[in-house]
């Protein structure tokens, strides 16, 4: 248990995506520090029962369910559980709560572009933003970073690689000190396979990540290496780094979470067991270090650290993301939207694994990059890319 001075008030934390994998890790860390941290708002997509169960444990002031049709069920369930937690439903209610004094800290852990409005609301309201929702940065990174800068919102990246880079960059004086940033990738469950060996992989195999326990969407992204592609774009925005200073290194042990090389030849790495509670504890406690429940790293037990180059022939999603980052404008938004639709179709058994990069590539070529200076323009291209990809999937299904 942490010792907190009496004058320090408790951090009031909104956990968005509370019923998910990151949500569970965040609530685990919060519950270890009851004097310092409190979950004041919990938000989830559609699982009312799981949200009520979390409210029983964490007793937040507010609970929000995305689906407006579930409002009465949430309200009645909270009441029957004897809780004072207020029930809310819908995206607007969530955005308003995030911007209100119901919280000072926001864990943005909704999956996909669905997380953009609440992430933006937190940035605009100047909250401490623990950002796990990488898709919002890929879709609207410039706007999100500008909103955070204007309001002095403090963004602490939760994605393990970016949290590692955030920590390593503490020893930098100016942007010019950094020669390059290396994002590590586990390689996913299919590392070492050729393209031909990927044709028949199943959903079950794709979501069985060798090192990390995560939600289904990011698990598939890790299997295609799109996750690393999204992370390159994420790093570009978070740390204001050009593509030329970014690179990817496959590291199957997932113990080195990323590296920063400085102009003097020093390379700093952040290491630790693959457990998201470490990143979340950094975000929740910063600049102090607090217990996360994660054990230290016993390098004697692990023995070997290996590194290799990514195989972009077998995993073209990484190449597609590189080129979307280079094209800029609307390209990353198209990449993300097409990928979300393709991954969802793969998870539903509608398309094969190799159709994911094929669909992303065809949608990217159908919607060439254009300048993107407003949220409206980005949301419009996001919708177009989704609809094109859905149509392509429907075409596939007819031909099959
Ligand atoms: P998950 O599928 O386990 O959980 C997603 C959460 O989002 C659930 O609580 C769900 O109810 C909620 N949700 C979905 N749609 C919603 C909507 N429209 N409105 C409100 N809530 C909604 O996913 P996860 O693995 O926890 O990942 C969450 C985010 O964090 C993703 O962007 C992912 O890329 C990122 N991330 C996750 C990990 C990890 O280890 N799981 C690591 C790095 C980054
Ligand atoms: Mg990551």
Automatic annotation (TrEMBL):
Listed InterPro entries: DXP_reductoisomerase, DXP_reductoisomerase_C, DXP_reductoisomerase_N, DXPR_C, DXPR_C_sf, NAD(P)-bd_dom_sf
Residues that coordinate or bind NADPH: 19-22, 45, 47, 133, 135, 215
Keyword Transferase annotated: no
Keywords for the protein's UniProt record, in alphabetical order: Isomerase, Isoprene biosynthesis, Magnesium, Manganese, Metal-binding, NADP, Oxidoreductase
Pfam families: DXP_redisom_C, DXP_reductoisom, DXPR_C
Top class in the EC scheme: oxidoreductase
Repeat is among the record's keywords: no
Domain 1-deoxy-D-xylulose 5-phosphate reductoisomerase N-terminal: 13-141
Family: Belongs to the DXR family.
This protein's name: 1-deoxy-D-xylulose 5-phosphate reductoisomerase
Lineage: Bacteria, Pseudomonadati, Pseudomonadota, Gammaproteobacteria, Lysobacterales
């Amino acid at each position: 248990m942490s010792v907190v001075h009496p004058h320090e008030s408790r951090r009031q934390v909104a956990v968005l995506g509370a019923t998910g994998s990151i949500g569970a890790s965040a609530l685990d860390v919060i519950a270890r520090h009851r004097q310092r941290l409190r979950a004041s708002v919990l938000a989830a997509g559609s699982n009312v029962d799981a949200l009520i169960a979390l409210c029983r444990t964490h007793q937040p002031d507010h609970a929000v369910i995305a689906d407006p049709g579930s409002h009465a069920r949430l309200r009645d369930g909270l009441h029957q559980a004897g809780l004072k937690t207020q029930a809310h439903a819908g995206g607007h209610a969530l955005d308003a709560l995030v911007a209100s004094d119901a919280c000072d800290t926001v864990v943005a852990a909704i999956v996909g572009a669905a997380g953009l409005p609440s992430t933006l609301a937190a940035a605009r309201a100047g909250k401490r933003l623990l950002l796990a929702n990488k898709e919002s940065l890929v879709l609207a990174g410039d706007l999100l970073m500008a909103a955070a800068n204007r309001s002095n919102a403090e963004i602490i990246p939760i994605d393990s690689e970016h949290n590692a880079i955030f920590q390593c960059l503490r020893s930098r004086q100016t942007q010019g000190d950094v020669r390059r940033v290396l994002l590590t990738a586990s390689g996913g469950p299919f590392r070492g396979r050729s393209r031909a060996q990927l044709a028949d992989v199943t959903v079950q195999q794709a979501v069985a990540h060798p090192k990390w326990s995560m939600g289904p969407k990011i698990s598939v992204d890790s299997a295609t290496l799109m996750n690393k592609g999204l992370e390159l774009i994420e790093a570009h925005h978070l740390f204001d780094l050009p593509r030329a200073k970014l690179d990817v290194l496959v590291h199957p042990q997932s113990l080195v979470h990323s590296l920063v090389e400085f102009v003097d030849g020093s390379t700093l790495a952040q290491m630790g067991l693959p457990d998201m509670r470490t990143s979340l504890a950094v975000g929740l406690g910063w600049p102090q270090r607090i217990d996360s429940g994660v054990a230290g790293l016993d390098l004697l037990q692990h023995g070997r650290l290996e590194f290799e180059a990514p195989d972009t022939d077998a995993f073209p999603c990484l190449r597609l993301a590189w080129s979307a980052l280079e094209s800029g404008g609307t390209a990353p938004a198209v990449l993300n939207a097409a990928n979300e639709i393709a991954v969802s179709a793969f998870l539903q058994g509608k398309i094969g694994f190799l159709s994911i990069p094929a669909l992303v590539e065809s949608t990217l070529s159908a919607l060439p990059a254009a300048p993107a200076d407003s949220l409206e323009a980005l949301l419009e291209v996001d919708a177009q890319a989704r609809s094109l990809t859905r149509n392509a999937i429907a075409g596939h299904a007819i031909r099959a």
